[in-house]
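Weekly modeling sync, notes
Attendees: S.R. (lead), two postdocs, one rotation student

Agenda item 3: backlog of single-chain predictions. S.R. asked that every request posted to the team notebook include the full sequence so nobody has to chase files. The rotation student volunteered to paste the first one in as an example of the format we agreed on. Action items at the bottom.

Example entry:
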Amino acid sequence: MSSMSRKIGFVGLGNMGLPMCMNLIQKNQEVMVHDLNKSAVQTVEMAGADPASALETLAKECSIIITMLPGCQAVNSVMDKLIYSLGDPAVLIDCSTVSPATSRRWDQEATKHGHSLIDAPVSGGVKGAEAGTLTFMVGCENDSETFGVAEPVLKMMGKRVIPCGGPGTGAATKLCNNLALSAQMVGICEAMNLGEALGVDPQTLADVMNESTAKCWSCEVNNPHPEVGDGTPATNNYEGGFATNLMLKDLGLAVAAGNDVGVSLPVGVQTKEMYRLASLRGLGDKDFGVILQFLRGK
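Predicted structure, as returned to the notebook:
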């Protein structure tokens, strides 16, 4: 049976998971979902998904299962129920951002029970999830049978599917990406803050930076200034983007991974501390571009 005709399970209907799941439904896939958020489940059910009251039910009915969860603890809890409830050989695709060690652990456990698991975290944010233009970083070789099953499913939710190597390398790649992104955003926030204080119009400053060497995702796509662009989290009181607490979690994983392999991350450590302080100030649920407001003492 081709991967395109199998029932797909989806666990985790948060800011990223819900639009990813919707893209599968819109591409006429048979999808079964599970999430503790009943409102999110109702949203995808109205679009055509079948709800599963328990993870064990979903595990028994789906041969491909995608998880999009907030961290290692949630992944450990869900995998502990899924893997031991699966029937026929299944492929699990974990799109959560977790430690490489967590990904390798569950890959080994799945293999032991006759299943396959790959780590496939994403980049592209909520906008990319909604538009179906995500990039997937896959901890799998491109010539493996599992990659052959997973790739067409992932391409229904994204634009690029990049094999990064063996188990855990997708997770490692994502942590490296977010390590750089977090510092990039802080740099843009500092520049936008300084420019405005010096009398430069924020939109003009952003336009110049986006035509110059400072051009980057944090400036062009997700600019943290509320007067720049349209439809960004910053223009919506920093709602609907990538939460500061999630970036803090990812930085914690990256710094811990660096410690594990003896790699110094001085900028990462300082950036993590800044996001920690912003979270303590009550900004944890806001998009991580809210660092601009944190720098202003708000």
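Discussion: group reviewed the output briefly. The chain is about 50% helix and 10% strand.
Action items: rotation student to repeat for the remaining queue; S.R. to check formatting next week.
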